[in-house]
Amino acid sequence: MELRVSLCIVAQVLSVALSPQPVAAGSKQAESTEQGSICEIGETPEKCGVTLPVESGEELPFRLSAGYLIMVEGQIGTQRNLRFILDTGATMSIVDKKIADKLKLSRHPMESFNFDRKLTWEQAEFPEVQFGPVKATKIAMLVGHLAEYSEFARNADAIIGTDLLKLSNFSIDYETRRIVFHLRGLESSAARGEPLSDCLTLEVLVQGHPVRLIVDTGLPGILLYEERLLKSVPGLQLTGKVINVTMGGRLPAKQVTLHGIAIGPTDKDVSVLLMKSPPPDMLPGIVGIVGIAALNARWVNLDFARGTLSWEGRQSAEAALQAFSEIGEGDSEVPFTIEDGYLIVVEARIGERRRVKFALDTGATYSVLRANTGKGLENARQPVRVVNLDRVLTQESVNVGDFQLGPIRIPQLAMMKNDLEYLRESAPQVEGLIGLDVLRLRSFSIDFHRRKINFGAQRLLRSSAPMEIDRSYMTVEVRMLDRPVHLLVDTGVRSILLYRDRVGERLPNVKVEERIRGTSLSGEASLEVVTLPRLQLNGTELERRGVLLRTSPAGFLPGVDGYLSIAALGAWRVSFDFERSRLSWE
What we know:
Elements: E1 22-23, E2 35-38, E3 59-61, E4 63-65, E5 69-76, E6 79-86, E7 94-96, H1 97-103, E8 108-113, E9 118-131, E10 134-144, H2 146-149, E11 158-160, H3 162-165, E12 168-173, E13 178-183, E14 201-206, E15 209-216, E16 222-225, H4 226-232, E17 238-247, E18 251-263, E19 266-275, E20 288-291, E21 297-303, E22 308-313, H5 317-325, E23 333-335, E24 337-339, E25 343-350, E26 353-360, E27 368-370, E28 378-388, E29 391-405, E30 408-418, E31 432-434, H6 436-439, E32 444-447, E33 452-455, E34 463-466, E35 468-469, E36 474-480, E37 483-490, E38 496-499, H7 500-503, E39 512-520, E40 523-531, E41 535-537, E42 540-541, E43 545-549, E44 562-565, E45 573-577, E46 582-585
Parallel strand pairs: 6-11, 7-10, 15-20, 16-19, 26-31, 27-30, 37-44, 38-43
Antiparallel strand pairs: 1-19, 2-22, 3-13, 4-5, 5-6, 5-9, 7-11, 8-9, 9-10, 12-13, 12-21, 14-15, 14-18, 16-20, 17-18, 18-19, 21-22, 23-33, 24-25, 25-26, 25-29, 27-31, 28-29, 29-30, 32-33, 32-45, 34-46, 35-36, 36-37, 36-41, 38-44, 39-40, 40-43, 41-42, 45-46
């Protein structure tokens, strides 16, 4: 059976290895107030006013894989805690073969076209699929090896396309990493229309000419079909040089900068990929694809019922801190000491108080100040919810004036208040934690031989691995018995910690050598000391002595299987390169 066009992007969605991003030059409006909307076909963004629905439905946490792919947990039949990539660029969902094998489903072959080649799939009817409040029964989905479909999908169990996504309108909140569903009441057995009718499209202006693009959560930037673009934009003007690249390791493309691209009210110079157009009968009227990540939005609302999309962009708190920290003066090298065998302790300044001792904690989203330290220094108190190991805490957050760590200086820093009881015996002199909110403002390296932290541009060390970084945490992929586990990189834990309920069958039976009480911001937790199976980070053997925590924080840290202590690397120098999203060590 042939499937002529089963995917909006025809299996091209996740195969782009490059991530073109907007170029700062050429903006006519401050991004801090940018708003835009995708209007129904035939309307321009200026003529429609799409707003976030007033009613709010069920929420589902997500994590960003590769910096832009939206990954949530879901269920297929009896298989729970599966990893789904939400992909508005695919009109038909795809399930990895290993899941269909476990369910022992009958299948039949199908084909789809991908511009210059045919892709062979199988199709099966699945008894039930669910993510968040979206539930479908007796749903037909494609079956195949996702690792062959895309390198970015190799750790996913399914790619959820618009055949399921359209059952609910939803909003994506990039600040809180939450998807909020607004149910439409559609039946899962509703007949499928033309493939393109399930795709959200956006009309943008390229040098004053309207072009129609498919909206795709599975693309990091903007891809345009060259021949169709030239027909739509006579006298197209490029900025800078043309760079020849390949997509997915085989498809030739050109990386160029186009000026005068208007998405919503803002006119920008944007780096895009140009590639050969598909045949005329494929995706008629479509000039390319725009990734939602290219909107640089704090939230995006997808309304499948109306065929519209709206978003709100803003200058992030991180960008504001970055702007403040640019004016800071101080040494790029900061000395540190090691306390309790693993804590990295530095001295920072708060207002007139100098040499205040803080522990570096890349596992903490927000910096923390001991409750009695901040008296008289803070203002503007407000509650904030944070995840700590196996539970979610509500803590008081205060704004602390004039914080400085080496070259990083922040006039107003929001810090959590906590009594840090768990450090009272092991590091009583520590008065706070410096979290990822501060540390990610500069790349830095930790030299354990010289006991120095160096802030600034970093060179890659002998061994390295990609980091997935979002506002709340950063993770790396570790191989355990050659199976992937995703660990949060944490300078604030003594050894590797795994969630038993997250790693599941990937963790073989291990002998519990000791049960201990671990302490943290949230109090005590019961931990099992074990010798873990073989663990590798991009070829480096990791320290196998670790601990297991029985339960993870329900609904939080999606896709995170535990914590990686940098001590487990056995390295004398470790570098955190936020510009290249690389962790390196030697």
